């Protein structure tokens, strides 16, 4: 199974304004599960997917009339097709979302981990992120625990994160975790460098 994550951005007059969330795409064989985590999009009524060959797929809800692009030429208007779904219909091999919780913690809360893991409280990379953003991330996903260090995704920081044992980068939104202004970075690719904590 392939899993990728992509940011969602708001654009205005062709310029990127701000991050509004992200999409998690899971591919298994010939099927996809797409989860959208976003904020302040209550008035959105449609979503468009475009293949590399230029074909478009549009899903809509409500009474919105949609522009359908044909070979990058003048758009034509197309009304959405409304389909009543049979309650007994099943989706083959549905992939359920994982059971995951995020919690903002302080450095002293590392004492919740198994005793052998307490040493990471003095990890230089962890201390750097904690000093900059004043918190850490506690993740529990399907019974597996992760500790996350807040930071920015770029090549230099990725190298440092890997060297200090935090190889996985996760992006969260306000839907997942409520942060104060001093606890995040709204202008860079902000997220958490994560380390899995082995079970006892």
Low-confidence segments, given as residue ranges, are 70-84, 86-97
How many strands in all?
Answer: 12
Rounded mean pLDDT is 78
Assembly annotation:
single chain
Strand order of the largest sheet: 8-9-10-12-11
Beta-strand share of residues: 35-45%
* Helical coverage, percent range: under 10%
Biggest beta sheet summary = 5 strands, antiparallel
* SS element count, helices: 2
Notes on the structure:
With 200 residues, this protein is mainly β. It folds into three domains: 41 residues; 51 residues, no CATH class; 98 residues, no CATH class. 10% of the residues lie in helices and 40% in strands. It contains two helices and twelve strands. A five-stranded antiparallel sheet has the order 8-9-10-12-11. The protein has a three-stranded antiparallel sheet with strand order 1-2-3, with no helix packed on it. A two-stranded antiparallel sheet has the order 4-5. Strand 6 and strand 7 form a beta hairpin. The longest helix has 10 residues. About 14% of the residues have low confidence.
